[in-house]
Specification:
Blueprint (H helix, E strand, L loop, with lengths): L3 H10 L2 H16 L6 H10 L1 H28 L1 H9 L6 H11 L16 H8 L6 H29 L1 H6 L1 H26 L1
Helix pairs in contact: 1-3, 2-4, 3-4, 3-8, 4-5, 4-7, 4-8, 6-7
């Protein structure tokens, strides 16, 4: 019975509703949601490896659209933009200050890092307070999502592609490991925030 979960997730990944959820989650996380779309995206990638790339593309597109929405707020009313991101749990003035320092010269690659760190939404607000250009900003957003989310998608795609029988036989073990993975990421992100503040 437990093996049926992977089959259900695989069928779900092939439906338009999965695309809509991933794109909307990417959009929302780029503006105010504190939970990254990777949480669902990685599960879909391991259960339905053939859908990993298209779903990742939709997550990136959603993040780009969300980032442009937040940009319009930050450009129109900088105080509102700051207030929006500072209202997200875990984001502090220190986080925003670190992002401002990173992007002050307008280098879009300053927004790129692997693993936990400054959220994209914080870079968005910081970018428009610095010397960055619109084209540089788009490059930074795309590079951020590719480097920040892409390796995880690739890893889970690889596992789902090379070991589908293992994934189906070990669903419970993988589910426990997956939850522990995200708990560890959350603890690590909190530790990094604590160090930088």
């Amino acid at each position: 019975m437990a093996r049926m979960v992977t089959n259900v997730v695989e069928r779900f990944a092939g439906r338009w509703v999965a695309i809509a959820i991933i794109a909307a989650w990417g959009l929302g996380e780029a503006i105010v949601l504190p939970v990254v779309p990777d949480v669902l995206l990685y599960v879909l990638a391991i259960a339905a490896p053939r859908r990993a790339a298209p779903l990742f593309g939709w997550a990136v597109l959603g993040a780009l659209v969300g980032s442009l929405v937040l940009s319009s707020v930050a450009l129109d009313d900088p105080a509102s933009g700051r207030g929006m991101v500072l209202g997200v749990p875990g984001i502090t003035e220190q986080t925003l200050g670190a992002a401002q320092l990173a992007v002050r010269d307008g280098d879009p690659l300053a927004m790129v890092h692997l693993g936990p760190g400054i959220p994209l939404k914080v870079y968005t607000v910081a970018w428009w307070e610095g010397a960055g250009t619109p084209a540089g900003y788009v490059v930074g957003v795309l590079a951020n999502r590719l480097i920040r989310i892409g390796p995880g998608v690739a890893l889970f795609w690889l596992i789902g592609t090379l070991a589908p029988a293992f994934v189906r036989r070990r669903e419970r073990l993988l589910a426990i490991g997956y939850v522990l993975f995200w708990v560890l990421i959350g603890l690590l992100a909190g530790r990094i925030e604590g160090i930088s503040s």
